[in-house]
Amino acid sequence: MWAIPALFIFFLLSQLIQPDWETLNGTAAQVTGAGIQVPEDVMAILSSSCFACHSDENRLSWFDKITPANFLVASHIEKGKAVLNFSKWNELTPPQQKAQLFYSLNKILEKEMPLASYVTIHPEAKLTKEKVDVLKRYIASLAPRKTTATGEVAVPDTQSKNRRQKPAVVPAPNGIRYIEGYGNWKAISTTDRFDNETMRVIFANDIAVKAIEDQRTNPWPDGAVFAKVAWKEKADDQGNITPGEFYQAEFMIKDAKKYVETKGWGWARWRGMDLKPYGKNADFANECVSCHAPQKDNDYVFTAPLNLAILKLNNNGNF
Fold first, then answer.
1. Bridge pairing between strands 265-271 and 225-235
2. What are the residues whose beta carbons fall under 8 Å from the beta carbon of 169, sequence distance 6 or more?
């Protein structure tokens, strides 16, 4: 008979053990407005679905502070703020802010955020289709289309010729070498990154194309390689969007054993006309893995290949 009262007393005493909420909550100056200036409807969504774990404005419910669940809640907050803290939004540059919003939207679209376990006991945090559409429209508005002179549309052709005349390109910090001739591969898809105003063409080598034909893309076979080529977006005086200044070329190389520490893929990127390797050291690849993490169930690949009939056309590029 004494067991139940003893457990109850133990439960009450355990409530005296709490995480350091003061440190997690931050200062009053950090909390006010959560540091980000957005339209009222967007702020309402961020406040109800994001701030609890991604700002110093935690707004904990009474049941969030019950031991031992409170330590799990504190862990989620600590990890969430390490990835993105809206209370320190103004410490980021505008490009970094756009990239963070784009990355966050990907997490939402992949239904990784907000956490299902959090939404279960905090139903007000659930993101409906209407709320997601509000976020989409706002993020898209951050990259307005820019109209330029029609003559600038031809810039990529000249850039391509100049780039082919460059001397040997320096390898990426992780030792991966720049792959010449990817423009002769088949173009399998295109993408539009509205957060940084770039448009991209994705090329695949023969092994990757064969995998698409055989429907063996999850996982992709060793030897499959993708080349993603990006240009800054330009618009002519008619409003047509075309490639502008060359931005970067990046590669994903599949080798499950060689690149086991980076999810089976070798990552490399070169920026600008001089094809400068991206990253200070080999750890830059972790940034790539993190960006592609929403696609972990698709072998970390965002690209959805075009129809097979299109791939069988002679679509060799001129890059």
1. unpaired
2. 177, 178, 270, 275, 277
State both tokens at 65.
């502070």
User: DSSP 3-state assignment of 244?
Assistant: strand
What stretch of H or E contains 231?
strand 225-235
Tally the residues of the chain.
Answer: 319
Strand partners, 227: 203, 251
Burial zone of 27 (CB within 10 Å; 0-12 exposed, 13-18 middle, 19+ buried): exposed
CB 204 within 8 A of CB 186: yes
194-247 tens-digit pLDDT = 666 788 889 999 999 999 988 899 999 999 999 999 988 776 666 566 778 889
Tokens of 78: 């600590």
Q: Which residue, among 132, 266, 153, has the nearest Cα to 199 in the 3D structure?
A: 153
CA–centroid distance for 281 within its chain = 20
Domain boundaries, the chain: 13-141, 150-311
Q: What does the alpha-carbon distance between residue 170 and residue 167 come to, in Å, rounded to a whole number?
A: 9
Question: From residue 184, how far is each of 49, 277, 313 by CA, in Å?
Answer: 46, 22, 13
Question: Structure pTM?
Answer: 0.55
Helix (H) / strand (E) element for 191: namely strand 186-193
Contact 101, 195 (CB under 8 A): yes
Helix (H, G, I), strand (E, B) or coil at 297: helix
The per-residue pLDDT for range 254-263, each reduced to its tens digit, is 999 999 999 9
Backbone φ and ψ of 10, nearest 5°: -60, -40
CATH of domain 150-311: 3.50.70.20
Q: Is 22 helix (H, G, I), strand (E, B) or coil?
A: helix
Give the DSSP H or E segment for 268: strand 265-271
- Which of 215, 243, 193 shows the shortest CA–CA distance to 307? 215
